[in-house]
Design goal:
It is a single chain. The chain has two domains: 6-133, Nuclear Transport Factor 2, Chain: A; 138-293, Nuclear Transport Factor 2, Chain: A (Roll), CATH 3.10.450.50. It is built from five helices and 18 strands. The chain has helices at residues 6-18, 47-55, 165-177, 181-187, 206-214; strands at 29-37, 42-45, 69-72, 76-79, 84-91, 95-103, 109-119, 122-132, 144-146, 188-196, 201-204, 229-233, 237-241, 245-253, 256-264, 270-280, 283-293, 305-307.
Length: 311
C-alpha cells in the first residue's frame, strides 16, 4: 500500500474535523504532533490537547452553513464537507499548504491557511494562520477588480534555467523592503495577477500592482519594524535580514511556492502575510495573499497550549 500524499492526508484530516470524529485524530496525527498558531503565539502539543480544544471550543462550529470544498493537488475535484469551503492544497509529498474557508458562529467569514509537515502518512507539525474577510478598501479601487471578473489562468513561460524560485522570492522581498518599485517590475510577468480573497479583490497587471504599492496610505515605515532575522526554509535552512518583514518561510516545489511574512503596519499592529506564488518561467505570474492579524491568546484554551518558543 502506497503512502498517501500530503494533500490526501490534509483532506482526511479536514474530513475528520468536519465529522467531529476527534477520536480518530491519532490515525492522522503523529504522537509528537505540534500545531503552532503564530498570531497568538500558542502551541498545541499532542493530539490529545488538540482534541480537547476542539471539544471545548466556545459555541462550536455550526453545521449546514457551508457549501463545498475544492481540493487542488494534484488535480481539481469537488467534495462536500459540512464545515469548510474552498480548500486548496499545494505542495510536495512531505510539505503542503492548505487554504480553507469557514464561517464562524457569529456569522463572520474567515480563511484558514495551514502549512503542514507530513511524515509517512501522518501530520507531524502544522502552522495555522487565521485570516478574517474584510471590505475592499476604497483607496485602491482604481487598480483592482472583483475576483472572478475575467480569467486568472496563468500562462506558463519558459522553464527557469539557473535562477531558482527561492532566489527570485528573496530578491522580490528585498525590493519590497527597499521600496524599489522598478526592480519589483522586473520580477513580475506582464499579465501578473494578485488575488486577495479576504476582500474579494484582484489586481491585474504589473502596472496596477506597482501603482497600488506606490500609493499605499502611509506606507510601511522601516523604523517601526522589528529587524530580527527571517528564516527561509527550502532545500536548506538559512537566515536572511529584512528591513520590513520578519519570519519569512518559503516552502514549495516546481512552479508553486508558499511564503510567510511578518510585518508591522504603521498603526503598530503586527500581521502575518501568507502568499501562494505561482511562477511563469523566471517571473512571478500570480500571487494569492492572505493577511492574518496577531491577537492575544484566548484564556479558554490556556490549559491545553504552551507558548511558541522564541527564535
Amino acid at each position: 500500500m502506497s503512502t498517501p500524499s500530503a494533500g490526501e492526508v490534509l483532506e482526511r484530516w479536514i474530513g475528520l474535523i468536519n465529522a467531529r470524529d476527534y477520536d480518530a485524530l491519532p490515525t492522522i496525527l503523529t504522537e509528537d504532533y505540534i500545531n503552532d498558531w503564530p498570531q497568538s503565539g500558542e502551541r498545541i502539543r499532542g493530539w490529545r490537547n488538540l482534541k480537547a480544544t476542539f471539544e471545548n471550543y466556545p459555541g462550536g462550529l455550526q453545521e449546514g452553513n457551508v457549501l463545498a470544498s475544492r481540493v487542488v493537488a494534484p488535480e481539481d475535484r469537488w467534495l462536500m464537507t459540512p464545515t469548510f469551503t474552498i480548500v486548496r492544497v499545494t505542495g510536495t509529498q512531505d510539505v503542503c499548504t492548505a487554504v480553507i474557508k469557514t464561517r464562524y458562529p457569529d456569522g463572520s467569514d474567515w480563511y484558514v491557511v495551514v502549512l503542514a509537515d507530513v511524515r509517512e502518512g501522518r501530520i507531524r507539525k502544522a502552522s495555522t494562520y487565521f485570516a478574517p474577510c474584510f471590505p475592499a478598501p476604497e483607496w485602491r479601487a482604481q487598480w483592482v477588480e472583483p475576483i472572478g471578473a475575467g480569467t486568472s489562468d496563468l500562462v506558463r513561460g519558459p522553464a527557469r534555467t539557473t535562477t531558482s524560485a527561492r532566489d527570485i522570492i528573496e530578491v522580490y522581498v528585498a525590493a519590497i523592503n527597499d521600496h524599489d518599485f522598478e526592480r519589483i517590475g522586473t520580477l513580475l510577468a506582464d499579465d501578473y495577477v494578485d488575488d486577495m480573497p479576504q476582500s474579494g479583490e484582484r489586481i491585474r497587471g504589473r502596472d496596477n500592482i506597482i501603482a497600488s504599492l506606490r500609493n499605499y496610505p502611509g506606507g510601511l515605515e522601516s523604523s517601526q519594524i522589528d529587524r530580527s532575522s527571517a528564516r527561509l526554509i527550502g532545500d536548506e535552512d538559512r537566515w536572511v535580514m529584512t528591513p520590513s518583514f520578519t519570519v519569512v518561510r518559503v516552502t514549495g516545489s516546481g512552479d508553486t511556492f508558499t511564503g510567510v511574512l511578518k510585518s508591522r503596519y504603521p498603526d503598530g499592529s503586527d500581521w502575518y502575510g501568507v502568499t501562494i506564488l505561482e511562477f511563469s518561467g523566471s517571473k512571478i505570474g500570480k500571487a494569492t495573499t492572505f493577511y492574518a492579524p496577531c491577537f492575544p491568546a484566548p484564556e479558554w484554551r490556556a490549559q491545553w497550549v504552551e507558548a511558541i518558543p522564541a527564535g
